[in-house]
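Dear colleague,

Following up on yesterday's call, I've attached the two folding results inline so they're easy to grep. Please treat them as preliminary; we haven't cross-checked anything against experimental data yet. The first protein's sequence and structure tokens come first.
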Amino acid sequence: AMNQHTILEERGNVFIITINRPEKKNALNSQLWQELCEAIDYFEQQDHLIVAILTNAGDVFCAGSDLKELAEGTYHAPENYSDWGFGGITRHFCPKPIIAAVNGRALGGGAEMALAADLCVITSDGAISFPEIKRALLATGGGALLRAGRALPIKRAMELMLTGDPISAQTAYDWGLV
């Protein structure tokens, strides 16, 4: 199928991209990553579409990379979009606004995507975290460290990155991330 893991919908001038892999916490496997890049590419090329909303089915916006596929060694960046970054937005400049509408939790790469969007809204029961540090990794792949450092006072950015603990939607709001 062309779109196994995304639902694409046009409502007037609004393009809604729904990450639809809730049984895997919307973790990005190669197929989903490809679909997101193609969706954003399409959005950019359509003059009538003026804003995109990136959202999710289920209670996790995105849990980052698909660790199973990563372990199998088959995980790869999408063809023709290798420099667009995680989810097609962390390293790619889109000339039109993208709003992340986070339903629930955004973790790791999912949090990077939320930070990379032009605007971010989150459900009141949501949370944002970069749990990579708990696995002795640093959340640098999608530029999260740099982005958090620009978006937040440095001590808060360091707390987020060095503890790996989630912050609530309310805290993310208080800090100005959402």
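Below is the second protein, in the same order (sequence, then structure):
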Amino acid sequence: MTQPPATVFLIDVDNTLLDNDRVIADLRVRLEQSFGAESASRYWVAFEQLRDQFGYVDYLGALQHFRAGESRLGMSDPRLLQMSNFLLDYPFADRLYPGALEALKHLRRQGPTVILSDGDAVFQPRKVQRSGLGDATEGRVLIYVHKEQMLDVVEQLHPARHYVMVDDKLRILSAMKAIWGPRLTTVFVRQGHYALDAQAIAAYAPADITVERIADLINFDFPST
């Protein structure tokens, strides 16, 4: 019987490996250019409503709600088709943080790397595929609505004696630590607006390891467990 690896590395996507804040900024500009600032603001209302309802960001779902709420937009309005194409064909590989792929390569020398992300079932897998992160982790990609609630499934799919979780949200790291305890090493990457929110940071205990950027992991060797 094959023994499980000593350590499996679980790595988040948005604002951990990929600068999702820049993706949203680009989307905001494109919406305002296409529909005007007032109409574009209604997309973000739908965006936040869906996030509150489902617990994850649904870019395409928000676009559907936006279309339904804008009576002047016909079913075949070319601007809507162009916006869909903008989202689905977005050059996510250009938004990887410097050193992200190198960090994954370095971690892979120490144990299997697995993408563990929150998100919808269409756009988030597209983002992972087009960014090259799926290939970088040899297809080991897990996407859930609330990943911190799926650790039993993660363990079944990728058994290990120890796990390392790399994320930009202390809330997620704290929730996972509460379940796995000493079997988990948490790594907090201080990138993106969540990681720089002083109020959010103060609400949770510090991670086991804190780095300023994902590239810092290139020179970090995790001890064998």
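For the second protein, one point worth flagging: The mean pLDDT is 92.

Best wishes,
A.L.
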